[in-house]
Amino acid sequence: MVDYGIGNTFSIRNGLQRVGFRAVLTKDLETLRRADLVVLPGVGSHQAAMSNIERYKLIDYLKDPDGWVLGICLGMQLLYERSEEGGLKGLGLLKGEVIRFRGVRKVPHMGWNEVNASKETPLLEGIEGRNFYFAHSFYKPFEGREEELGITEYEGVKFTSLVQKGKIIGTQFHPEKSSSAGRKFLENLAREIRR
């Protein structure tokens, strides 16, 4: 897991360990290069995360990673080209801009919501109901791009909740806080990585 000074690393570490990963929180570039999966944790400020990624000299590696990457919540948002939060650039691994919820009764979108598959994916196999836990104020609008695998709706706003482009995966939801659905998602991810 990339240590950029923010995020819910304890629960992510536990979730990963439950499905067989040895989870390590690190800023060390060589440790990240050797990892089976690099995780960008969620919760926090886009500006603080990108600033710390640059300060720890991880930006070049994260813009062109060697292997599997999982971005969770804020981590997924960092994968895109830019964010409306402070008008900042992201890592640019995925095309598009992350924007803030507007015209909804409550921000942040917090609680359980359904992830509907826009395309079939082994990442969602065997998950009944597909309800996951969300906690976010910014989102990537759903555009029907090839890599957008999951769509969720919050008060009429449709957003991308699961994305995969090759070995780059992003979840707007928190699998580590999503009970049995989240555990199954992480099991599916582990199976894909080991395939």
UniProtKB/TrEMBL annotation:
EC number: 4.3.2.10, 3.5.1.2
Gene name of the encoded protein: hisH
GO molecular function, one term: glutaminase activity
Single GO cellular component term: cytoplasm
Active-site residues (renumbered): C73 (nucleophile), H174, E176
Pfam families assigned to the protein according to its UniProt record, in alphabetical order: GATase
PROSITE patterns membership: GATASE_TYPE_1
Protein name: Imidazole glycerol phosphate synthase subunit HisH
Xref: Gene3D superfamilies: 3.40.50.880
Subcellular location: Cytoplasm
Chief localization: cytoplasm
Residues making up the signal peptide according to the UniProt record: none
